[in-house]
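Q: Lead, cadmium, zinc and mercury-transporting ATPase, please. Structure only.
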Amino acid sequence: MIDVVALEGSEAELLGLAAAVEQGSSHPLAKAIVEKADEVGATAPPSGDQQAVQGKGAQAIVQGRTLVVGSPKYAAELAPLAAEVAGQIEAMELQGKTVVLLLDPPALLGLIAIRDEPRPDAREALSQLKQLGVEGVMLTGDNARTGQAIAEGLGLEVRAELMPEDKLRIIGELRRAEKGNQKVAMVGDGINDAPALAQADVGIAMGGGTDVALETADAALLRNSVTGVSDLIRLSRGTMRVVAQNIAFALGLKAVFLATTLLGVTGLWPAILADTGATALVTLNSLRLLRFR
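A: Structure for Lead, cadmium, zinc and mercury-transporting ATPase:
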């Protein structure tokens, strides 16, 4: 759900200008704005020199003007926000919405409030992860009110209003707090997630994410479904079990035949045949992983 508050011109004009700035962006909020503009028939004028302002927003040249779509915090850096506008933003955020502002600096053209909804499979994915003993923390650049509203619905700890460097720092803190065989995995899809994906023990990119995230991550979920994270963990654990079984079986068999050959119980040829048989059995054991779905 998207609310539009136009301070200059009509709501359709505001959406069209915002869509012009956000065209081509892979950010979820940008996609939501472009889709809403298409839905209401708002025309996005031609734009050029589009740039992402990391962790803050985006800008582009539209109709000869440098327009900016950004967070309230970033907008406040570009121009002071009136008390009435700040009140509107707070009210929208209390409803769990993420607010972005369209500016022709220093002029504020309007507000767009987007209700963030968890992915349809998010709850199922988190349930599966808990069954696997995996603890989750939501790291988001959204405002604290929106982040808290979403996290409460999912039963997650949340850290909000994070810049890329903040996510990087938190991943570093979690890695330093690792105990035993614990590892930190980061799941992300945006350019702002790339540094944290690289910092984590395992970086997992969503299939529909940015090229930067996909190139930085250690693994990519091609189905673009978060339930794939638990599938990936199960497959990884299964693979490690098979590797351990294969090593134990192969070394154990070699040790047995080495001892029996030295004692004269078996000859050289039985040992060679046993070694060949061990290779075949190890291969067959590994093929069990092909049954994973």
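A: Brief note, in case it's useful. The first strand starts at residue 2 and ends at 6.
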